[in-house]
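re: that chain from earlier
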Amino acid sequence: MGLALALALGVALALRLFVYPPTGSVGGSDAVVVLAGDASTRLPVATRLAADGAGVLVVSVAGGADNEPARALCSEPGDLEVYCFTAAGADTRAEARSLGALVAEQGWRRITVVTNSYHVVRAGILVRRCTDADVAVADARADMGLRRWASAVVGEAGGLGAAALRQSC
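^ sequence. v structure.
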């Protein structure tokens, strides 16, 4: 009975943190930020929010075919004011540091970060550590099978553990 309860609580916690994460109100942001990775899922949400809001989109640029649409947007921004940056490392903490510097440089007071739903909690923690701006996080829900969800949850659980151990920006 105790094992079943522990398992049920673990599943409920995983669902709340990674599948249906808490997000904030995304209105009134000075800029919308799209983190690198899974651009086909994240970029449409970010560009819509930016177009409906301040018209400012910040793009974390990284290598790989998955990020090609984001790199293309940096070259052809369309009607949006686009800021592109490349983090000094290939992880969310490095993106958060680079983003924090850009937010301070631009004087933005409120930003909305767009990432996959399984990444919302950790990305929010890391970005908030690296900026004084008010940070809302919007989730972009990827169309994923159970195997990919399980892999994402395990990876993010490890990332949250690392974020808890390393409290600095």
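Residues 21-165 form a domain with the Rossmann fold fold (CATH 3.40.50.620).
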